């Protein structure tokens, strides 16, 4: 799998990760845990490391943390989770629960989820980063309606990471957010690269275009992921999945050729 640098440190990060929204919220269904463990196995086998979660995602943190502990794979993972509440003390309490769920003394990336009370939490995160409790800090959102506020925060704050949505159907991030992240030296995690699954559902019945094979794509998943990665400001894409087969398929998009942005001109018309 290809790697890209985190601008604030130069450390390399694999370009495909795994999101846990919905797919890992199976704490009350133990029979589904083994497949989630296989998802993480496929991520690691392919050279990926990033696992993104949040307290908002139900039991996803507990499930992923337990699976990592059982497999002895904690050191293979780049854990990215979030704080999603208001108030300093509530935020600290929530993040401490996340540490417990992940069975971790240190979390690689802590993000302010959907910009909720971001000024308060960024202050805490800077303190925790200085103490070594977290490696990186950032903010997230998932919808274009929040881009103006997200841009304001990106301009005002020194962030290691920013996370937002980007796909062939939602390209507004190309206009300001992706160039700004590159300008400000912020790593970018991309969520919803399949348009919350709507793009895959729409394209599934269509044959792959003849140019897909030469760039190493044998599925629409891989086409959509390579499109996102063709923007050099993107550091890592985190498609969510509960299927080991899908994780393996997604991860392959991070290997081989990633075409430049110019490659896509005219190729997305009519898709």
TrEMBL record:
Residues 16-261 form the NADP-dependent oxidoreductase domain. It holds the Pfam family Aldo_ket_red. InterPro entries: AKR2_Oxidoreductase, NAD(P)_OxRdtase_dom_sf, NADP_OxRdtase_dom. CDD domains: AKR_PA4992-like. This is Aldo/keto reductase. It comes from Caenimonas aquaedulcis.
């Amino acid at each position: 799998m290809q790697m890209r640098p985190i601008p604030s440190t130069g450390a390399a990060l694999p370009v495909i990760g795994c999101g846990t929204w919905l797919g890992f919220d199976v704490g009350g269904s133990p029979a589904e845990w083994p497949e989630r463990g296989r998802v993480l196995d496929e991520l690691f086998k392919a050279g990926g490391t990033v696992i993104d979660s949040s307290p908002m995602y139900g039991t996803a943190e507990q499930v992923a943390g337990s699976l990592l502990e059982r497999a002895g794979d904690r050191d293979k993972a780049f854990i990215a989770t979030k704080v999603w509440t208001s108030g300093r003390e509530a935020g600290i309490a929530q993040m401490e629960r996340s540490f417990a769920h992940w069975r971790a003394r240190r979390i690689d990336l802590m993000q302010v989820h959907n910009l909720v009370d971001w000024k308060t939490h960024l202050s805490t995160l800077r303190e925790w980063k200085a103490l070594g409790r977290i490696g990186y800090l950032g903010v997230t959102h998932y919808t274009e309606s929040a881009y103006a506020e997200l841009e304001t925060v990106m301009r005002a704050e020194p962030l290691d990471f920013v996370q937002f949505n980007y796909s062939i159907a939602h390209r507004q991030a190309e206009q300001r957010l992706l160039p700004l992240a590159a300008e400000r030296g912020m790593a970018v995690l991309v969520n919803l690269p399949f348009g919350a699954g709507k793009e895959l559902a729409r394209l599934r019945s269509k044959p792959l275009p003849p140019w897909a094979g030469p760039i190493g794509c044998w599925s629409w998943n891989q086409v959509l992921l390579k499109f996102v990665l063709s923007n050099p400001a993107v550091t890592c894409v985190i498609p969510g999945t509960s299927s080991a087969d899908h994780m393996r398929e997604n991860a392959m998009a991070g290997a081989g050729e990633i075409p430049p942005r110019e490659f896509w001109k005219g190729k997305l018309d009519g898709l």
